[in-house]
Amino acid sequence: MKYGYIRVSTKEQNIDRQLSAILKEVGDMKQIYIDKASGKDFERKKYKKLIRTLKEGDELYIKSIDRLGRSYDDIIKEWHLITKVKNVDIIVLDFPLLNTKHQINNLTGKFLSDIVLQILSYVAQIERENTHQRQMEGIKEARKRGIKFGRSKKEVPKQFDDVVTMWVNQKISLREGAKLLDVSHTTFSKWIQEKGYMREKKKNLDKIKESSKMKLAT
């Protein structure tokens, strides 16, 4: 059985290039597993399902070896699992020399494939590390020039003081106040903390408690 695997990060959402090449070989869209994951999220649920599905004699088509993992160790580990443990052939479309299918001398062919794989995986990891280093250096230089990264800070609306006064006086809840300002309750709570209204409300509550005690005493 022929299978295909595609992985794209959130930065490269377009899967067309990988899909068209793999679909041409596999022939059935149902046999192609696709993961979309960010750098932080690398669970690869479809890949794990694919590994459970693969059986001895199957063929796995990938566009390039870095689809198997993010690091040298990851790629080597997955390659070993698929080709040695599962006895499944891997066909790397971008680098036919790595293909384990239809090798004239199977033992020698796989040995050469393993050597080439280790070299390419090492080079790929070094390139990723160098790219990351260049990005960090670029960000550092940009910050020196005053360039800011991330989301811009949300401006506090003019009606904030009126709304927060109602909240301090217990006329509305935190969520109701946030709704009036059309922001999340987390943002509203953050503004309250930053502007010291949390302390003001505590003082107000203390006054109410003290007043209640005095009424009970009389």
From TrEMBL:
Keywords, alphabetical: DNA integration, DNA recombination, DNA-binding
Residues covered by the Resolvase/invertase-type recombinase catalytic domain: 1-146
UniProt entry tagged with the keyword DNA-binding: yes
UniProt GO BP: DNA integration
Pfam families recorded: Resolvase
Catalytic residues (UniProt): S9 (o-(5'-phospho-dna)-serine intermediate)
GO molecular function: DNA binding; DNA strand exchange activity
Record has Magnesium as a keyword: no
Name the record gives this protein: Resolvase/integrase
Lineage, opening ranks: Bacteria, Bacillati, Bacillota, Bacilli, Lactobacillales
